[in-house]
Predict the structure.
Amino acid sequence: MATQATAQAMVTLTGPFADLDRFLATWSLETEAERFAHRVNADYADIVEFYEALAPRMDEIIDHLNATPLAELSDEQTALYHLAQSFFEAAVAVENLQEPDEATMLSPERMRIDIDGGAL
Amino acid sequence: MTDQLVRAQGPLGLDDAGAVLGYEPLPLESYHSQEWFELERDRVFTKTWLMLGRVEEIPKTGDFMVRTVEIARTSVIVTRAADGVVRAFHNVCSHRGSVLQRTDGCGHARRIVCPYHSWSYDMTGKLTGVPAEEKFQNFDKADNGLTPIACDVWEGFIFINLDPSPRETLREHMGELYGLYPGFFDGFEPVGGHSAVVRCNWKALLDAFMETYHFASIHTRTLPDMAGRVIGARLYDRHRVMATGMNPEHAPTPAELLAFKHGAGINSAAGSTKQRPPGLNPQNFPTWQSDITVIFPNADLQIIGDFVLAMWFWPVDRNTTRFMCRYYTAPQANAGAKLTSHYLTCLLRDVFREDLHNIEYVQAGIESGAKTHMVIQDNEVGLRHAHMVLAREIERNG
């Protein structure tokens, strides 16, 4: 997993999404387990920064990804897809919890991810 | 009581359930008693049909699904053979009785090989390989296949029955639910899945998924004003459907708006992309959000537009439960559809973590013995029905 995350970080976002490239290394994570673990352990300020940068761009990101068949997404588009997945992870923290995690929830390590959510 | 659970003209609803089922407090004994747990093992979980998963989880020849069924003290393997047939077996080697596939979940193999001495079986359960076979005397591979388990499929959902001679067919078990969703789930694929082992009786957790009274206390942040409250019930002979309604004044968050915009299939209000089957919102509630179809004894399907949430409450012991959920949707054509259903899996993961955290305190309170009964309101009528059905099935299978 660490290798995949590293490989993902090697990709660079260009064109209309070049400004989001700064989030790739931390948020473009391939698996739900990685994204979930990252969110619950992140500083809330970092989650908010990521959320606020992505929120106004999500329509554009989704329209861009929708224009390519899923099986033909480039490495760059795949990295963008994982970034968009992380947006929804961050959205739960920002829009619902107003913190990275909640004390009155089963601890994250006890929740097993059996099927990777939204895997390509 | 037994014959009163269903009216001649149809299932009991919220309006008339009380008159038939009564208003008495419900005993808590079955939530902690070892004797009850053993009755549930002997008369329910080893006698009735149990839902395991979907056929789309094992689509190809050689695919298999493994589920440990702790209460029945066995592990089950469901296979897809070259003839396309889905079969179930005890996941146990004929040689020295070892468990074969040792990890729950889905996998793919040409053969099922025992890790102990490498005996191997094909997907029809036939023993095909025995190292040093010539050393076994009076031995015929044909007599040593896997032990079959009754297996059948309803609307793409795989069921097993651990009784070597099931008393009824799956069709009989499904009863009134049988024809309610014809073809609706066809092609639904798993797009996520979570599980956790929690310290509670399985019924305590199931109870939490049959009422919405707790939303305004437990889910204040994850489901702030959606408050899908129970607006209708259909209490059948053995199963039940609780309908939940959307709060018309709900203010969607930006992520929710995005999800609804790019994945209309997950928004009940926008309508499903499929034709609505007769079993879904037959009452035509204008604010309908979802139907929670509870399949006896331990599974439910929450149907939200084209998004189906399957949940299982697997008893491990009298105060331990393995919670399992699987998210299924119609095939997703593009990234937008995938991302929007993933929003729901992220949000629901936290909704469920709230339930799972809370339920351990419920169990702890019950175990204290301070209370012998629980008091039930109209919104919680599903619990009352579940209690009556379980007691009756235990009596019936005695």
